[in-house]
Amino acid sequence: MTTVAKNARLHIDWTRCDGRGLCAELLPKLLGRDDWGYPVVRDGAREPLIPREARTYARAAVNRCPRQALSLAASPPKAKRAR
């Protein structure tokens, strides 16, 4: 079983997704569904940050996606400002 990093983001591969909606059912606070069943990120982010309380469900969504359209991606570290 993989662990989800503190700064993990949910990546949706739109070329694989066919709108079955399992991810939206497992992550209702993070994802909604459009009229055709495709996931819609509630905060409008391209790759939403996964909150601590949703990490277990995010891992389940990735593992259960029938089209393998979901993955977890680590957020890039914040760049330091030049002085």
What does this structure look like?
- This protein is of the alpha+beta class.
- It is 18% helix and 19% strand.
- Strands 1-4 form a two-stranded antiparallel ribbon.
- The chain is globular, with a radius of gyration of 13 Å.
Overview features:
two-stranded antiparallel sheet; 19% strand; two-stranded antiparallel ribbon; alpha+beta; single chain; 83 residues; 2 helices
Brief digest:
The chain is α+β, with helices and mostly antiparallel strands and 83 residues long. Helix content is 18%, strand content 19%. The radius of gyration is 13 Å and the shape is globular.
The H/E string reads EHEEHE
Tell me about the largest β-sheet: 2 strands, antiparallel
Uncertain runs are none
Number of helices: 2
Name the shape in a single word. Answer: globular
- The helix fraction, in percent, is 10-25%
Beginning-to-end CA distance, first to last residue: 43 Å
- Tell me how many strands there are: 4
Instruction: State Rg.
Output: 13 Å
What fraction of the residues are assigned to beta strands by DSSP?
Answer: 15-25%
Query: Which strand order do you get reading across the main beta sheet?
Result: 1-4
Average pLDDT number: 90
Overall structural class, as computed from helix and strand content, comes to alpha+beta
